[in-house]
Amino acid sequence: MAEKQKKTSPAEFIRQVQTETSKVVWPTRQETITTAIFVGIMMVILSLFFLGIDTVFGSVVTWLLSLA
């Protein structure tokens, strides 16, 4: 038979949440800015990459359709 789980009281739950949130390590302002800049640069690079791929595939499809 499965053991019955003991129910946690709301007060105990709040204490557990406070204990866990005290363990969270928030990034510094500089880390946040650096990460945001990195994400922006990667977004630009990937958008240009996919624009190039899309353009090449579009041209290939147009060329193939012109053969028919």
List its traits.
68 residues, mainly alpha, 2 helices, 75% helix, elongated
pLDDT < 50 stretches: none
Structural class: mainly alpha
Q: What percentage of the residues does DSSP assign to strands (E)?
A: under 5%
**Largest sheet data:** none
Number of helices: 2
Q: Tell me the series of helices and strands, N- to C-terminal.
A: HH
How much is the radius of gyration in Å?
A: 27 Å
Shape: elongated
Keywords: Cell membrane, Membrane, Protein transport, Translocation, Transmembrane, Transmembrane helix, Transport
Function: Essential subunit of the Sec protein translocation channel SecYEG. Clamps together the 2 halves of SecY. May contact the channel plug during translocation.
Family: Belongs to the SecE/SEC61-gamma family.
GO cellular component, one term: plasma membrane
Explain this structure:
- The chain has 68 residues and is mainly α.
- The chain has a domain at 28-68.
- Helices cover 75% and strands 0% of the residues.
- It has two helices and no strands.
- The protein has helices at 10-21, 29-67.
- The protein is elongated, with a radius of gyration of 27 Å.
- It starts with 9 loop residues before the first helix and ends with a helix.
